[in-house]
Amino acid sequence: PPLYIQRYEFVIDFVKKNKPKKVVDLGCNDCTLLRKLKFHKEIELLAGLDIDCAVIRDKMYELAPIPTDYLQPGDHPLTIELYQGSVTERDPRTKGFDLVTSIELIEHLQLEDVDRFTEVVFGYMAPVAAIISTPNADFNPLLPGLTGFRHYDHKFEWTKVEFQTWALKVCREFGYVVAFTGVGQIPAQEESIGFCSQIGVFQIDRSGGDAPRLQNNVAEEHLPYRVLYNVVY
Ligand code: SAM
Question: For residue 185, how far is its CA from the centre of ligand 1 (angstroms)?
């Protein structure tokens, strides 16, 4: 399958194994990943955020219930919430999630916004787990005809070492552990190059005992994200 499908499948496999109840997809674009996730019955709250409201609106009504959602209901209702906003801003409605996904998003941010993103995701949202994917620049010489970045809107593309340096700093600062993996075949003779898309799977580090969970004082805080869609079924 194409690489973007492999990235979604990676997330879906993680969801099947870890059964998160609350999942938020950052940079959800036209909600393709969310449409796949809505069939995973353990999920109770599925949220999406993108800065581009037109792209969210494009297909968001496809997240509406279909007859089988009523014919084969899960044990609990599913809430879906879509927001327009930037990952550089803190909104209390994204706190306390079991899983945050950020698939091919960070390379679209200016580097100073990557710092804000890091603080917002790991310091403020503080999910139990996060899956972050981004292109692996080390792989670029293997892509035929590529000169420069893979996409005109990319602000940077990190090598494996650059991504891992960022990720390990996240772990030290915010109390996470990370596993590095990826999708996109590794040509046999080029294993040191790594995957075409590199992925960090972050888990909150509970080795020092359970960290106190953040209080969700939604009412007291500023809500910068705009709700575009909300459905419960
Ligand atoms: N995650 C999707 C996927 O894997 O197919 C879409 C990836 S697309 C390359 C990057 C997305 O990030 C776009 O939909 C873009 O609008 C969104 N984006 C860019 N900057 C953002 C920001 N500061 N906050 C939220 N979303 C942003």
Answer: 24
pLDDT digits (tens, 9 = 90+) for 69-92: 888 877 899 999 999 999 999 999
Cα separations in angstroms, 85 against 63, 81, 91, 157, 177: 19, 13, 9, 23, 28
Specify the CATH number of the domain 3-232: 3.40.50.150
Q: Of 108, 112, 133, 155, which is best to mutate to test ligand 1, by the most ligand atoms within 8 angstroms of its C-beta?
A: 108
User: Using an 8 Å Cβ cutoff, are 124 and 95 in contact?
Assistant: yes
What was the ipTM of the complex prediction?
A: 0.99
The radius of gyration computed from the CA coordinates of the chain, to the nearest angstrom, equals 18
User: Which residue, judged by its Cα, is nearest atom 18 of ligand 1?
Assistant: 27
Q: Where are the domains of the chain?
A: 3-232
Q: 146-157: per-residue pLDDT in tens?
A: 989 999 999 999
What confidence tens digit (pLDDT) does each residue in 100-158 have? 999 999 999 999 999 999 999 999 999 999 999 999 999 999 898 998 999 999 999 99
How far, in Å, from the CA of 44 to the mean position of ligand 1? Answer: 23
Quick check: helix, strand or coil at residue 81? strand
Residue nearest to atom 6 of ligand 1 (CA): 29
Which CB contacts under 8 angstroms, 24+ apart, belong to 212-216?
Answer: 213/96, 214/95, 214/96, 214/126, 216/92, 216/95, 216/96
